[in-house]
Amino acid sequence: MATYKEINGTAVQNVAGDPSNPLEGEVWYNSSVGAFKVYQENAAGAWATGGSLNNGRYGLAATGPQTAALAFGANAFTETYNGTSWTEVNDLNTGRRALAGAGDTNTASLAFGGGDPETALTETWNGTNWTAVNPLNTVRRYLGGCGTNTAALAFGGKVPTPPAGLANTETWNGTNWTEVNDLNTARNELGSAGTNTAALAFGGGPAFPLDDVQTESWNGTNWTEVANLNSGRVQLGGAGIQTAALAFGGSPGGTLTESWNGSNWTSISALNVGRRGLTGTGIQTAALAIGGEPPGPPSSPTATEEFNSPTLQVQTITTT
Predict the structure, then answer these.
(1) What tens digit of pLDDT does each residue of 148-202 get?
(2) What pLDDT does 318 receive?
C-alpha cells in the first residue's frame, strides 16, 4: 500500500499548531494537541465572522438573504448588509425591542409586534422608508414571524397580563392581519423559519423558565407537533425553510447550532460568539446570525456571523 509521502511527494509535517493557510486535503500533525489534522470539506457547514453591526443591540429582527439582508429593531435603527458590511439606512417609525420580521429581500420587509409595553404595530419597508400599516389583532412581543411583506405569519409571543406565552397565530395578506388556528403549545421567545403557508416554530416556552424543546410545523391551516430540538432554549435565532432550517444561539447554551432536515434536529458546528436575543435570516446553507447579548451583564454586541455549507475546515483525523 502506498504511503502518504509516495502519494504526495512529502511526509506529514510535524508543527506546533495549525498552518495559517492550508491547502484543501493537506494533512499535518499538530504537536500542541497531539493529533493529526486535515483541511477538508465539512458538509455540515460552519460559522465565520462577518461584518459588524454599526449599532450593537439585542431583541432585533432581520430579513432577506445572506448577501442582501436587513436588520431592524431593538431601537429604531435599520441597517442593510451586502455580504461584507452593514450600512445605516432610514429608521423605523417606532423603535422597539423583541419584534418579529418577514421578507425575502432587503427592499421589501415587514416589522410587527414588539415593544415594552407590548404593541401591535406593523410597518412595511420599501427599500427606502418604513410606513405604518394595519396592526396585529393581538398586542405582543417576543413573537415568531416569517414570510414576505405581502404574505406573512405571526405566532406566539408574550402579553402584558398575565406575563405568559401566547398560542395566537395571524396571517398578513399585504393589507390586514387575520386570526387563524393557534399553536398547540403557547410560547414566547421562540425561533422561527419558513413562509406563511409552510412555517416552523421551535424553542421558547409558555412561562418561566423558558427552555422548551418543542417544534411545530405549519401547513397553512394547522400546526402539528414534530421532533424536538436536542437542546431547549429561548431567545434563539432561526433561518431557512420548513424542511431545511437552522436554530442557533439562545439561552442556555448560547453557541449551540442545530440543523433541521424536515424530520429531525442534528447538532452541528457552534457559533463563535455565544449569545441570546440575536436574530437570524437566510437559508440553511447560507445564513446570518446577527446581534444579541452574551451571558452576564447586559451589553449590545455588534457581532455578525455567516454560516455556509459546505465549507472547508480544519478537522481532526481519528486514528485507531
Answers:
(1) 999 999 999 998 766 678 999 999 999 999 999 999 999 999 999 999 999 999 9
(2) 65
Q: How far apart are CA 19 and CA 314, in angstroms?
A: 10
Spatial separation of the C-alpha atoms in residues 42 and 24, rounded to whole Å: 11
Q: CA distances (Å), 4 to each of 1, 11, 117, 179, in order?
A: 10, 7, 65, 64
Domains of the chain: 4-42 (no CATH), 46-308 (2.120.10.80)
Strand-pairing partners, residue 282, are 287
Cβ atoms 177, 150 nearer than 8 A: no
Report the pLDDT averaged over residues 61-78.
97
The strands making up 144-147's β-sheet, listed across from edge to edge, are 144-147, 152-155, 169-172, 177-180
**What is the C-alpha to C-alpha distance for residues 108 and 172, in angstroms, rounded to an integer?**
14
Grid cell of 116 as nine digits: 415594552
CA–chain centroid gap for 218, Å, is 18
Cβ atoms of residues 308 and 45 within 8 Å: yes
Burial pattern 184-219, b for ≥16 Cβ within 10 A else e, equals: ebbbbbbbbbbbbebbbbbbbbbeeebbbebbbbbe
Closest CA to 72 of 100, 108, 113, 107: 100
Give Cβ neighbours of residue 45 (< 8 Å, ≥ 6 apart).
259, 268, 269, 285, 307, 308, 309, 310, 311
Per DSSP, the residues of 303-319 read -EEEEESSEEEEEEPP-
